[in-house]
Amino acid sequence: MVIDLQNISWVRQGKQILTDVSWQVNRGENWCLVGLNGSGKTTLLNILTGYIWPSTGSVTVLGQRYGTVKLPEFRKRIGLVSSSLQQRFYGHETAEEVVMSGKFATIGLYDGVEADDEQRARELLVLFGCEKLTGRQYHTFSQGEQQKVLIARALMASPDILILDEPCTGLDLLAREQVLAMISDIASKPDAPTLIYVTHHIEEIVPCFTHTLLLKEGTIFETGATEQVLHAEALSRFFGVPVEVHERENRKWIVANL
Ligand SMILES: Nc1ncnc2c1ncn2[C@@H]1O[C@H](COP(=O)(O)OP(=O)(O)OP(=O)(O)O)[C@@H](O)[C@H]1O
Fold it and tell me: Which parts of 3-140 are beta strand (E)?
């Protein structure tokens, strides 16, 4: 099993933020985590990456139970792309330097870089159609280009799990579709990491996401195969408004009937 969360609760300042969340992710599955603002998605990711400790429950990732594992080293097995990461780059690094820094799970290039690393970083940029960014500074990239470079960066350490926390926020239609195509491409590789994709938007759930978890007010509202979870009745209850679900080429979008 890749992820095994058992009965996780998290309480802060007397407020129950997560309540009895149990979630299992098996190898070969890719998950979408969908929730409204404040539903606890970021908190759940922070528990998954060991940055916060649950008030109750147990966290086992890649067979390692948290509390018995050295997290700074272990985290190299988990790639993370989040908007907070995007803000931490100041921008004078080139695309390949940003990608290479992913090997060390650091922001800058503070550790020794080997010739192989540079080669791999360039290969990742080529693989995802970003070769034209090579040699250019990060701050000159569009948001979509920045996001693609950060995803390539997260792959540099060949992680077992890749967490993508709202990677399409702020992207225009074309950039969003390019990022989603890149993610689908990653998922199609034989040695692909397990993907965990966080979003508010149903239309971002591309077919590679085999499973979906709906999180509402800190509890699991619905979980299972994406096909089963994304139906009008459950989504209407989830969003609290009647919704219609439309589908084309294995991709769904919803319309709220207000
Ligand atoms: N350290 C903290 N202390 C107190 N409350 C917190 C803390 N961290 C998060 N919360 C609260 O927990 C709830 C869930 O927050 P969280 O950031 O996990 O939601 P989210 O689903 O990621 O939301 P968004 O989609 O807006 O990013 C919110 O009501 C938030 O205010």
Answer: 3-12, 15-25, 31-35, 56-61, 64-65, 78-81
Q: At what angle do helices 173-188 and 143-155 cross, to 10 degrees?
A: 10
- Could you report the per-residue pLDDT of 86-123, keeping only the tens digit for each? 666 667 889 999 998 888 765 555 566 777 888 999 99
Q: Does domain 3-256 have CATH number 3.10.20.30?
A: no
* Interface confidence (ipTM) of the complex: 0.95
Q: How far, in Å, CA of 105 to CA of 72, rounded?
A: 9
Among residues 245, 217, 228, which one has the least CA distance to residue 35? 217
Q: Which atom of ligand 1 is nearest to the CA of 39?
A: 21
Evaluate: CB of 37 within 6 angstroms of ligand 1. Answer: yes
Q: Atom 9 (ligand 1): residue with closest C-alpha?
A: 43
User: Is the distance from the beta carbon of residue 43 to the nearest atom of ligand 1 less than 6 Å?
Assistant: yes
Of all protein residues, whose CA lies closest to atom 26 belonging to ligand 1?
A: 37
Domain assignments of the chain as residue spans, ordered by start: 3-256
Please count the other Cβ atoms lying within 10 Å of the Cβ belonging to residue 134. 14
The CB of 42 under 6 Å from ligand 1? The reply is yes
**Is the beta carbon of 39 within 6 A of some atom in ligand 1?**
yes
Per the CB < 8 A criterion, the answer to whether 179 and 167 are in contact is: yes
pTM (2 decimals)? 0.93
Q: What is the pLDDT of residues 186-213, one digit of tens each?
A: 999 999 999 999 999 999 999 999 999 9
